Amino acid sequence: MGFSFKRFWLINLGIIIMSAGLYYFLIPADLAVGGVTGLAMVINKLVPVIPIGILMLIANVILFIIAFLVIGKDFGGYTIYSSILLSSVIYLFEITTPLEKPLIDDIMINLIYGIIIQGIGMAIIFYQNASTGGTDIVAKIINRFTHIEIGKSLLMADFLIIILAIFTFGPRLALYALLGIGINALVIDKVIAGFNTKMKVVIISEKSDEINDYIINEIKRGTTLYYADGGYTKTKKTIVSTVVNKRQYIKIKKFAQVTDPKIFINVSFVQEVLGEGFWNGTC
């Protein structure tokens, strides 16, 4: 994907959102919901003198080389940056807003809010072809070679952490954590599906040439033209078909309605688009 300010900004936003879900909800409730974070919580429980943020940083180094070799330097570089920033933000939270107990004394509320907030942050990061290291790297490798959705891949990678949590925090918390990684997988896949959603627009108009030129030259999207006969009018019709995002569709709709007040537009949502002009990555 390469570097862009938008990508960099979105990765940072995802890290901050994820850190908030972890630190303010999951960590104080001892919910080791997989990943290096869950592993760090297990170790921290056994060796409290070592901060969770430092444990996360150390554990991530083990998988960085794999990320570079298997997935590539772009993913590996952003993964290093993201993991360092995640550890740093959590460590900053530990210094500025130390917590001796959960904000809310209800494990289910901590689990649900923590997982949803964390999952949204992780989805943003994954969608930018990056990760926060640890089992996220394992999940990305599974996703790359099997094309299993990234959330489900993460569920597979995190299952071992839950087994360790059973012996550290007991079966009750571990079962909550198991529920957590299941919800996490669902949230990540749903959020990414939302990012990937595009709109297939089919336009029937007497001004199809003008509309087609606008889509190609102004919106910078390709089109497909179909030639058909009107079932009611028995006249020749030119149908313009294209796939765009929501903002592009709004522009096309406004232009088309001004150009031809009698226009007919049919819109449907598509979950995945591959090919020229669209990202061919997997998530």
From TrEMBL:
<dbReference type="InterPro" id="IPR015867">
    <property type="entry name" value="N-reg_PII/ATP_PRibTrfase_C"/>
</dbReference>
<dbReference type="Pfam" id="PF10035">
    <property type="entry name" value="DUF2179"/>
</dbReference>
<dbReference type="Pfam" id="PF02588">
    <property type="entry name" value="YitT_membrane"/>
</dbReference>
<protein>
    <submittedName>
        <fullName>YitT family protein</fullName>
    </submittedName>
</protein>
<keyword id="KW-0472">Membrane</keyword>
<keyword id="KW-1003">Cell membrane</keyword>
<dbReference type="InterPro" id="IPR003740">
    <property type="entry name" value="YitT"/>
</dbReference>
<keyword id="KW-0812">Transmembrane</keyword>
<keyword id="KW-1133">Transmembrane helix</keyword>
<feature type="transmembrane region" description="Helical">
    <location>
        <begin position="46"/>
        <end position="71"/>
    </location>
</feature>
<dbReference type="GO" id="GO:0005886">
    <property type="term" value="C:plasma membrane"/>
</dbReference>
<feature type="domain" description="DUF2179">
    <location>
        <begin position="221"/>
        <end position="275"/>
    </location>
</feature>
<feature type="transmembrane region" description="Helical">
    <location>
        <begin position="78"/>
        <end position="95"/>
    </location>
</feature>
<feature type="transmembrane region" description="Helical">
    <location>
        <begin position="173"/>
        <end position="192"/>
    </location>
</feature>
<feature type="transmembrane region" description="Helical">
    <location>
        <begin position="148"/>
        <end position="167"/>
    </location>
</feature>
<dbReference type="InterPro" id="IPR051461">
    <property type="entry name" value="UPF0750_membrane"/>
</dbReference>
<feature type="transmembrane region" description="Helical">
    <location>
        <begin position="7"/>
        <end position="26"/>
    </location>
</feature>
<feature type="transmembrane region" description="Helical">
    <location>
        <begin position="107"/>
        <end position="127"/>
    </location>
</feature>
<dbReference type="InterPro" id="IPR019264">
    <property type="entry name" value="DUF2179"/>
</dbReference>
